[in-house]
Amino acid sequence: MIHKEVTIGVSARHIHLSQEHVELLFGKGYELTEMKPLSQPGQYAANETVAVVGPKGTFAKVRILGPARKQTQLEVSRTDAFALGVNPPVRESGDTKGSAGIMLQGPAGEVTIEEGVIVAARHIHFHTSDAERFGISDKQSLRVRFAGERGVVFENVVARVSEQYALDMHIDTDEANAAGVKNGDKAEIID
Fold it and tell me: N or C: which end of the chain has fewer CB within 10 A?
């Protein structure tokens, strides 16, 4: 039997911007600049941040993750959503239809998005070879055991399979804090 171990990455609030919104917030022709690479190939934390303004609260410096995407998407935890005064759905990245909206402020302007705020569904990125080795298919729902001091089994973990991914599990800060998970901790896929 194969031991199906995965590294956990804790995903703090962040935003993905379309190039159109990058330019509206930072200026015409502006390109994001890389601060540090992330676990997924080609992805990075940008030097740039934006203010996120909700009906109840504001986060002054929300990190942008690059490169620019085809649509703008803000990913927050449920606690963040309460602080902002929005009620985003739990969704897979990219599934923003009918989700909450928010105002974004940058040094060159502001943008109000009508939808695009989500609580990201917990998920595991699988490179195709890892998925084959573990016998896992794209969009499969998994259970993952974290055996730390506050051991927990995460249910409904979405498998995302692509040649472009590196094996890595993502949970948000609320989930990590509740279970005592830190970046780099290991967990086991149990089914």
Answer: N
